[in-house]
Amino acid sequence: MRRWVCPSCTGGVNAPERMHHDDVRRFCLACSKGSTRLVRRACPALEKTSARQADRSAARRVEKAEERKREDAARFEACGVDVRLLSEELWRAFPIGRGRPPALRLRRVQSGAVFGRAYFQRCLISIGVGPSATNPQLSCTVLHELAHIYVGAPMLNGRRAPHGLAFNRALRAAAKRAFAVDLPLGSGRGYDLTRRIERVLIDRAAVVLGAAVPS
Ligand SMILES: [Zn+2]
Ligand SMILES: [Zn+2]
Question: Which of 7, 43, 157, 173 is the most exposed place for a label (fewest CB within 10 A)?
């Protein structure tokens, strides 16, 4: 049984917590007589409970959101950084990098260091991180894949030339902006420039780009 009280005359009745919505005990008939509408009684105890429940579910929602954020950060964490943020940061090193950064897929691999793949039609880069991955390798691989997205699929004599001159020029300019690594283009073909950039980053020991993931 609960106390149901009229807000106008403060008179009350004892009635169950749950009643039919038109149960007569929900209304103060004395006050209703002087009004064109039924005057509804309130149940302060129930109102307090529902306010508490609302508070509790708001707190739960906040907690859930924070948990999701933590899970999300963990999903994209590698080598002490949030790889998604790293990718967004490195994307800005390309001249058109002010647009939306490519989507990122992060995979854990069982062996090796860092592997990358770019799907320029889907505007997606896929990064595989192995147990021996280091931050400089990761940074260099992400930049390399972003350069693929930026350049697209250049053709040379009717064949795809993914690591051609256009690619290496874009990579060189981006490495200069992102890491202040200013290297000569060299042959401008293949992985040569990528390897040299990576070596400089490894020698520097710690290029921690991207927001550090709180531990
Ligand atoms: Zn009343
Ligand atoms: Zn490549």
Answer: 157
The per-residue pLDDT for 215 is: 43
How far does residue 141's CA lie from ligand 1's centre (Å)? 75
Q: 115 pairs with which residues across the strands? A: 128
pTM metric for this prediction: 0.67
- Domains of the chain: residue spans and CATH: 1-42 (no CATH), 76-204 (3.30.2010.10)
Residue 194 alpha carbon to ligand 2 centre in Å: 9
Ligand 2 centroid from CA 72, angstroms = 27
Inter-axis angle of helices 135-151 and 192-204, to 10 degrees? Answer: 150
Residues 15-28: pLDDT tens digits?
999 999 999 999 99
Closest ligand to Cα 162: 2
Candidates 67, 106, 66, 107; CA nearest to 85 is 106
- Residues whose CB is under 5 A from ligand 1 (ion)? 6, 8-9, 28, 31
Among all ligands shown, which has an atom nearest to the Cα of 34?
1
Ligand 2 centre distance from Cα of residue 144 (Å):
6
Q: pLDDT (tens digit, 9 = 90+) per residue, 136-179?
A: 999 999 999 999 999 987 777 777 888 999 999 999 999 999 99
